[in-house]
Design a protein that fits this description.
The chain has about 150 residues and is mostly helical. Helices cover about 85% and strands about 0% of the residues. It contains 5 helices and no strands. α3 runs antiparallel to α4 and α4 runs antiparallel to α5.
């Protein structure tokens, strides 16, 4: 019985080490790499969406082009949430709290967007409060990115 427990502990320890080495590390390099990769991914998607909308418009289907453009905006909003959460996962400790605040507040704004039609004043108030909460952290994260990665967020 003791031998099987030792094997189980060894396997669990090896798995934990392997999983931690596969997860993103908190470093300037990981932050900058994620920033660059995510920005490139989002820009490529936006460019593809814009090209599709232009093709539809050139074929005379302006309504489909408009809906394609609108759908692209919706996708971009979701991609921005993914981008910010991925940055938060690898942000170095000196900027981690600020990136997490920005990511969490953006997630809240996105979650609350659905209620804007039924409670527009509440949505405006919520957006203002969120803007106040994220103004400082967002500015610090952008400055950190410019200083360490050579580009803003």
């Amino acid at each position: 019985m003791k031998k099987s427990f030792k094997v189980l502990v060894s396997v669990a320890t090896a798995s934990a080490v392997l999983m931690s080495s596969c997860s993103g590390s908190r470093s300037v390099d990981a932050f900058c790499s994620t920033l660059e990769d995510e920005q490139e991914r989002i820009l490529l998607q936006l460019e593809a969406n814009q090209a599709n909308a232009q093709d539809l418009s050139a074929q005379g289907d302006d309504l489909a082009a408009a809906f394609t453009s609108l759908a692209g905006v919706g996708v971009a909003l979701g991609d921005l949430a993914t981008y910010l959460n991925r940055l938060a996962a690898v942000a170095p400790t000196e900027i981690q709290d600020d990136v997490e605040v920005v990511a969490e507040e953006y997630d809240k704004q996105l979650d609350n967007a659905g209620s804007a039609a039924s409670n527009p004043l509440g949505a405006i108030g919520s957006g203002l409060v969120s803007g106040f909460k994220t103004a400082g952290p967002l500015q610090r994260v952008d400055s950190y990115a410019r200083e360490n990665c050579g580009q803003g967020i």
